[in-house]
Give the backbone structure.
Amino acid sequence: MRLKALLIKDVLERSELLKQSLLECGHDVVGEATITDDLIKRVEATQPDLLVIDSDSPGKVLLSRLRDLASYKPLPVVLFTEEDNREVIHLAVRAGVSAYIVDGLEQHRLGTILDVAVARFHETDRLRRELHDTRANLLERKTVERAKGILMKQRGFDEPQAYHALRKMAMDKNLRIGQVAENVVAVAELLN
C-alpha cells in the first residue's frame, strides 16, 4: 500500500536517509516539517496518511504538538529516535506515537515498521471509537431509566408503560428514544 508521509525532522543527515528510504519503499513524502512547526497546519496542507518523525530525543514541544494533533486529527505516527528512556517512551505513546523505534533506521525494515504502525493505529482507533460509542450508549440508557422513573412517579405508569410512552413519542417525533428521554428529564428539572 502506497502511503503519503509527512516527514518531521530534527537530525538533517538521518532525515535525508529516512526520506530516501521512504521513497525507495514506494511511499510519497508529501511534505517536510521541523519539530517546532505547527503540525496541525502542516497536516491540513499536506493531508498525509501518517507522520514519520526523526528526533534524537523527543522533547516536551514535540510531544505537546503530537497530543494537539491527536485530538484534532489522529494519524499513525512513527518516531525514529536515539532516546530509550522508558518515561519518554510512555509519554510518546500517550501523545499518539504508534511505533517508537530506537536505533532502527534500516531501509529493509522500514516497510514493515510502517505497516505495523498503521495497523496498530487503526486497531487503537477502532477501540477508541468503540469505547466512545459504548459510553454514549450507557449514558443514553441511564437517561432513559431516569425518564422512565419520572413518568412512573408523575403519571403513575408502571415500567413497561413508561418505556412504551417514551418509545411511542420517539417514533411519533422521529427521534431516538435517548433524545426523548433527555427532553423528559429536562422538562422535569425545569418544573421542579
